[in-house]
Amino acid sequence: MKTSTAALAAAAIVAIGLGAAWFSISRNESSDIFAQCRSSVVAGGAGQIGGPFTLTDENGKQVTDKDVITEPSLLYFGYTYCPDVCPLDNARNAEATELLEKRGYSVTPIFISVDSARDTPELLKEFTDIMDPKMIGLTGTPEQIKQVSKEYRTYYHVQDPGDPYTLIDHSTQSYLVFPDIGFVEYFNRDTPPKEMADRIGCFVDAWKGAKSGN
Fold this sequence. Notes:
copper, Thioredoxin-like_sf, Thioredoxin domain-containing protein, metal-binding, globular, SCO1/SenC, Glutaredoxin
């Protein structure tokens, strides 16, 4: 993916939005069950980022967020034609969830395509199966993709809509979400798999503890 002025500006907008969410939640840290898992770069909070969506899964079935996010999940927005960033980022996410599985945690990696023109369910299934058999691929209409991107404050821009080989500028954060809670954390693309697994494990432990009343 080429770096462009528009992409850099969009990244700044995403960072501002995430920072605003962090400020909001930091004021209520005493009631934040995930406070011990957060770091100085953490941004998030239920109700600030994320929201309901309706998309089409890699099997061609229409699904909602409640159908897909049934356990701790790691969301990434990208596209299958992406020459470098998306494969690397999704491979990292898959490695992190595999590390977590070895530790007894179950986390689902989810890939949401921002390329509704080219990413058919069949292509998504091929992509996700290569990355991780557990990974779920989602696509949708341009309007549906725009809506879910807005909910998660992500950015994408098709460089040349008339070119079948066009590249798409897009943000590269991965989002940790929980059933009934929603968004709790994001990870930048330079976060190593082990560090991501360690931090996600902390969030899952806090979530389970809150559910059990401990």
